[in-house]
TrEMBL record:
Keywords: ATP-binding, Cell membrane, Membrane, Nucleotide-binding, Transport. InterPro entries: AAA+_ATPase, ABC_Ni/Peptide_Import, ABC_transporter-like_ATP-bd, ABC_transporter-like_CS, Oligopep_ABC_C, P-loop_NTPase. Belongs to the ABC transporter superfamily. The lineage of its organism: Bacteria, Bacillati, Actinomycetota, Actinomycetes, Propionibacteriales. Residues 4-248 form the ABC transporter domain. GO terms for cellular component: plasma membrane. It comes from Tessaracoccus aquimaris. It is a peripheral membrane protein. This is ABC transporter ATP-binding protein.
Length: 275
C-alpha cells in the first residue's frame, strides 16, 4: 500500500483560477518523489494541503490519503495528532519556521513532548542526539542558542532535526536548500539523502538539479497541473513536455547557442499534460 495517495486534488482560493488543478500522484514506503516547477506552480500549496495547513478559505476537492486514511476534511484536532509525528515538513526558511524567542533545543523538545510526553531529562538527551545526527558539532551549544545566533546551515539542520525527531513515516521537504550557499546546500542534500532513506518523502524544489540529487522520480508542475512525471533520469534524457525541455535547457545555459533566445515560461504552457 502506498503511504501517500493524492487523487484529483484541486485547490482554489476565491474566484481565482485553481492554484492546484486536478493533480494525482502516489508515494510508496521508502519512496521519494520530487516535485519541481516555477514559483506559483502549485507545488508548495500541495505540500501545505497534505500537512493540513491551508487557510480556512481554501476550497479543496479530491482526495489525499495517508496510509489509507482520508486527510481532506479531517478535523484539525485529529490532524494535530498526525502533524509533526507521523507526517512532518521541512520548511524553506528556518527563520520563519523557528520561533525567534525560544531556544532551539526547547523548540525541538516541545515537538517530541507534544506527541510522546516523555520526561524532561530524556527529552533533552533525545534533542541532543538528533542535533548530533544531523551533523551539528556542538549539540549542547546549539540547543541553548536562539535561531538568530546560528548560521543558515545550522538553522536548517536544526529544522531537519525537529522534523525527524518523532521518526515520521512521511516527510515533506519544501525548498529546504534554497536560502543556502552552494557548499552548505550540498551538505544539506547529503544529510537529507541519508536521513530519508527509511521514510517516504516528497521533495519540492524549483531546481531540477537539486531534485536529481535525492529523488529517483519527479513530477513537473506548471500552472497548477502535473505536466510530466516519471523516472528523473529518463525525464532528463528524454523530456516530453515543452516546459520540461525548457527547464533542462535553462540548467545548461552555456550549451545554448548565443543567437538562440532563451525561452520564457509562457512559451511552454500548452494546457496539456504529458505522462
Amino acid at each position: 500500500m502506498n503511504v501517500l495517495e493524492v487523487r484529483d486534488l484541486t485547490i482554489r482560493f476565491g474566484r481565482r483560477p485553481p492554484a492546484v488543478d486536478g493533480i494525482s500522484f502516489s508515494v510508496g514506503e521508502h519512496d521519494r518523489l520530487g516535485i519541481i516547477g516555477q514559483s506559483g506552480s502549485g507545488k508548495s500549496v500541495t505540500s501545505l494541503a497534505i500537512m493540513g495547513l491551508l487557510p480556512e478559505h481554501a476550497q479543496v476537492t479530491g482526495s489525499i490519503t495517508f496510509n489509507g486514511r482520508e486527510l481532506v476534511g479531517l478535523p484539525e484536532r485529529q490532524y494535530r495528532g498526525l502533524r509533526g509525528d507521523e507526517i512532518s515538513m521541512i520548511f524553506q526558511e528556518p527563520m520563519t519556521a523557528l520561533d525567534p524567542t525560544m531556544r532551539v533545543g526547547r523548540q525541538i523538545g516541545e515537538v517530541v513532548a507534544l506527541h510522546h510526553g516523555e520526561q524532561k531529562g530524556s527529552i533533552h538527551m533525545e534533542v541532543l542526539d538528533w542535533l548530533g545526527k544531523v551533523g551539528i558539532a556542538e549539540p549542547e551549544r546549539i540547543a541553548d542558542s536562539y535561531p538568530h545566533e546560528l548560521s543558515g546551515g545550522q538553522r536548517q539542520r536544526a529544522l531537519i532535526a525537529m522534523a525527524l525527531a518523532n521518526e515520521p513515516e512521511l516527510v515533506l521537504c519544501d525548498e529546504p536548500t534554497t536560502a543556502l550557499d552552494v557548499l552548505v546546500q550540498r551538505q544539506i542534500l547529503r544529510l537529507l539523502d541519508e536521513q530519508l532513506r527509511d521514510r517516504a518523502s516528497v521533495f519540492v524544489s524549483h531546481d531540477l538539479a537539486v531534485v536529481r540529487e535525492v529523488c529517483p522520480r519527479v513530477a513537473v508542475m506548471l500552472e497548477g497541473r502535473i505536466v510530466e512525471e516519471g523516472e528523473v533520469e529518463q525525464i532528463i534524457s528524454d523530456p516530453q513536455h515543452p516546459y520540461t525541455k525548457g527547464l533542462i535547457a535553462s540548467a545548461r545555459i552555456d550549451r545554448v547557442p548565443r543567437d538562440q533566445p532563451l525561452p520564457s515560461v509562457a512559451d511552454f504552457y500548452t494546457g496539456e499534460a504529458h505522462a
